[in-house]
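> Could you send the DNA helicase prediction when you get a chance?

Sure thing. Input:
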Amino acid sequence: MPASPPHTSPHTSPPPITPDAELALEQAHLERARAELARMREHTLSLQADGGDAIAGESLARTLWLRARALQDDPRTTLFFGRIDTDTPERLYIGRRHVSDEDGDPVVVDWRAGVSTAFYRASPTEPMGVERRRRFGVEEGRLTAFEDELLTAGGPPGAQGHGEGQSQILAREIERPRIGPMRDIVATIQPEQDEIVRADVATTICVQGAPGTGKTAVGLHRAAWLLYAFGERLARGGVLVVGPNRAFLEHVGAVLPSLGEVTVRHTTVEELVGHAVVRAVDAPDVARLKGEARMADVLREAVWGHVRPATEALVVPRGSRRWRVPAYEVQDILDELRVRGVRYAAARAMLPQRLAHAVLVAMERSGDSPDDRVQDAVARSAAVKAYVRSVWPEVTPQAVVAELLSAGEGLEDDQRAMVWDRPRAPRSARWSVADLALLDEVADLLERTPSLGHVVLDEAQDLSPMQLRAVGRRASTGSLTVLGDIAQGTTPWATGSWAESLQHLGKALDGDDVHLEVLDRGFRVPASVIEYAARLLPHMAPGLGAPRSVRSHPGRLDVLAVGDPVAGTVEAVRAAAAHEGSLGVIVPDAWVDRVGSALTAAAVEHEVLDGSHAEERILPVHLVPATVAKGLEFDQVVVTEPAQIAEAEPDRRSGLRRLYVVLTRAVSGLTVVHARPLPGPLAGEAG
Ligand SMILES: Nc1ncnc2c1ncn2[C@@H]1O[C@H](COP(=O)(O)OP(=O)(O)OP(=O)(O)O)[C@@H](O)[C@H]1O
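Output:
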């Protein structure tokens, strides 16, 4: 690829040039890239949407419109954030999207292109042909600085080398205040993260990572990369992101659009398997039982148990004659459909034609020569319809699950706790979250669930085996990116082993195309805060380590013993609000109203983050129920009454894990406000 002016022949007798002049040249290249992008856009707009017929024309017009929109320049950001000079006379500017000049030569290369890999992965030990890596400091669409790293001894002179992890630009990016929703990390993806982002489309990757190690960021960038690299293959099935709640999806929802991907759907597990409205909450032991994988066998039996043995002959009157298919022949047909692996409803749909065929054979045996129209007519006859209804009745997911939970037939003794206190018809059933996964399982037994191309499943540790099955069947012919942290599992059915979770998702960890990766460099939580939260680990996730904070800022940690926890929280919020950036006030769920009123009375403007609604995060102070905090982050965090937060969970382990989640949301400062004694492990009690 030729170098572009003003940087022709970069490696031959470089002129002595000051950093300011160098930066001015880079800014000139940026302006040139902007001009080329504008030209590309104008060219697209000038194309006629003439696709022959009206429909083709409309579709082409839409494609062109989308393309023109994608080519719109965003003056708030730069078109490139990095550059690599290779050992061939090649210089590549790496950016969010591809820009080429009139001759089709690249001015900026998309970060997802194969040639950009070296920007992220090259190191002094493995330079990958890169002599110099340059990172740009960016402010409001202008280049403000650059930083060079020389990766080979023979690299071009005049540059300053930076060792691994010493990049000031990376440090600034990590240390910046977090305002508004999550941003992309495309300029600073780390080598270990890039390996995950660019794993082959057929590969299912499971990432175990402590809080703030970039799991969510990596999963979203992987989705963007897959769509770029395998767009056509994925276009049909699509890519889906599954997250724990609406507040989380709102937090992460801007990342993919900022990378130019607007087609990826974001959903929660409950929405994904939304066969009913949730109107009941199960006791934890019941929810755990309903979430167990053995429910899949119970439900399979329950569905197929509806197929009754053929005890009577099928008799079809036609004209003056009555045609008869003996019961044993019908039974053979039923058996054949059952063992074929066809779904219940699909098999039921085939049954009339099979029975009609048997009638036709009987007609032929007696000398008739009926044609296919006769077979169709027999298949649609009242006699065949009635017979099908009697041996292979139509069922719905709601009916099957309501019947099971009303009567308990097929359940083991220890599963009977899930049986309702009185029988209910499907319409009067009050479904719980765990029931949704049961309904989904039945829906799939009735009709095969279509598979997507790729599913990114975040906070996967919290899903029950039945929920994992529901997600897995949506990637049955595709692949998954499974993100989570066993130490942050707060549901009673949270996983203790990724091998098991993957199995429920339908992917075997020992398979060639399934990998487990561990991320341990923490980009969010500063060292003092992580050390504090890590006191909990030996008590609720022995064997799992805390992240190694790569933040240079040690962070602020204040643990305040107060008389009144609500008044204490308001004081702490006032003090924390003096710092820059966003502020999360994480309180026991039951205290949201109380703390909210106290904040309002103290004239602290705030908004409540609700797990079931996507809120606009406009105000800098967010009041967050403890159970909604997972996956979120704020510059300053105030955590109110840890003992109460832990006690609200059904068991001690889940309580301490919930606490670990809320304590690890802070980017810069954490204030813990407590009136009651802190839970033992947090107060330093040995593990
Ligand atoms: N390579 C990177 N460069 C800059 N920032 C990064 C990088 N990787 C992660 N971050 C930032 O670190 C923060 C934490 O990332 P993220 O939320 O993806 O972590 P996580 O592992 O999903 O955390 P949790 O388990 O707590 O949900 C985010 O602000 C993210 O933008």
